[in-house]
Specification:
about 350 residues; globular; three-stranded parallel beta sheet; binds S-adenosylmethionine; alpha/beta; TIM Barrel
């Protein structure tokens, strides 16, 4: 077992069978401490002690999809829906720019009110005013033609978590109208177009086994995304998964550390869901190999409506408060903040 951990550290590679073997024996001896230590050293080797800060704008909670786990799924009639106008979104970015951010992540449900033209307008407004910033879109599945057009209009990066790399588990957690193969195809298309691409998954999904998690890790190693979002599944009371147990901080930290070792040059965020389960969750993720945080820039009036899961943190905080709170947390943990574009080293290598 220790030999496998040493191999993982030395080569950043394991077979799927070896990944399963490591996951099965991690709770023995000091294996987990070794995994975290190797992940931390790997992160230092590539990104040093820097933690990139991205400004997150959650610009619409309308969604045509019906993922069983998600609080903003189309069937949830209890959510108060909102949309930010292109001008509202620009204002959030202006505030973010003044706070020092040079990367903006624009996220929403799958909301086709934002047509190609509207999305182009938003990208044009932000890039017109701030040409040097990087813009990340996270708006779900669209056609290749749309992805191409948005790339040309100035989108640099795209986050589309694969959610789970197991087709069988994916199909249990999504309605028949959603396709595992299409989601994976979208990821490949985005990469081909030239985006910095983010994949990722939830830990602790109902029915998820060690074998499923090994599939996620193996997929990430093969696909080598530029960004990887990993967070615990947290049940939402107005979804069919209400009352389900959900993921733990401990298991999610293990996945973050393992991912740092299998995809050493990826940008890995310490997710808000980690901070929701444990006040120190994001700091612990940073110590386990994460190198990105995404403070929220959305207007306070809408923050609590983007409720993917219960008890989401920071929904009452001003953007400037989120900025200083996270800066303080990063510094106290012994890391440095970096407000630059923070391009993925995986992408820089191939660009
Ligand atoms: N609509 C876009 C998409 O599908 O990629 C982006 C928005 S979607 C709400 C963002 C992410 O939230 C999903 O990829 C999923 O992993 C996460 N999420 C949704 N419900 C969750 C839950 N109950 N617990 C934890 N994470 C959740």
């Amino acid at each position: 077992m220790r030999e496998l951990l040493d191999k993982l550290y030395a080569t950043n590679s394991l077979t799927k069978e070896e990944i399963i073997e490591v996951l099965r024996h991690l709770d023995e001896a000091d294996h987990k401490d070794v995994l975290f230590d190797y992940a931390h050293k790997t992160r230092l080797a590539h990104y040093g002690p820097r933690v990139f800060m991205r400004g997150l704008v959650e610009f619409s909670n309308y969604c045509k999809q019906d993922c069983l786990y998600c609080g903003i799924r189309a069937s949830n009639r209890k959510v108060e829906r909102y949309r930010l106008t292109p001008q509202d979104i620009l204002e959030c970015c202006t505030e973010g720019y003044e706070l020092g951010y040079r990367t903006f992540v624009l996220q929403s449900g799958e909301d086709f009110w934002y047509t190609e033209e509207r999305l182009e307008e938003i990208l044009g407004l932000i890039k017109g005013k701030y040409p040097e910033v990087a813009i990340t879109l996270s708006i779900g599945e669209r056609s290749r033609a749309t992805y191409e057009r948005l790339y040309k209009a100035g989108a640099d990066r795209f986050l589309l978590r694969h959610e789970t790399a197991s087709k069988e588990l994916y199909e249990k957690l999504h309605p028949a109208s959603m396709s595992f193969d299409n989601r994976m195809e979208c990821l490949r298309t985005l990469k081909e177009i030239g985006y910095q691409v983010g994949a990722g998954f939830m830990v602790g999904l109902p029915g998820q086994t060690t074998h499923h998690l090994a599939e996620d890790l193996h997929f990430l190693h093969t696909f080598q995304p530029d960004m990887i979002g990993i967070g615990p599944f947290i049940a939402h009371n107005d979804t069919p998964l209400k009352g389900q147990k959900g993921g733990t901080v401990e298991d999610t930290l293990t996945m973050v550390a393992f991912t740092r070792l299998l995809v050493p040059k990826a940008n890995l965020p310490a997710t808000t869901a980690m901070g929701t389960l444990d006040p120190q969750g994001r700091e612990r993720a940073i110590k386990a190999g994460a190198n990105v945080v995404m403070p929220n820039l959305s207007p306070i009036s809408v923050k609590d409506k983007y409720s993917l899961y219960e008890n989401k943190i920071c929904t009452g905080d001003e953007a400037s408060h989120c900025r200083s709170c996270l800066e303080m947390r990063i510094k106290v943990s012994g890391f440095d903040i970096d407000l630059g574009r923070g391009d993925s080293l995986n992408w820089i290598q191939h660009a």
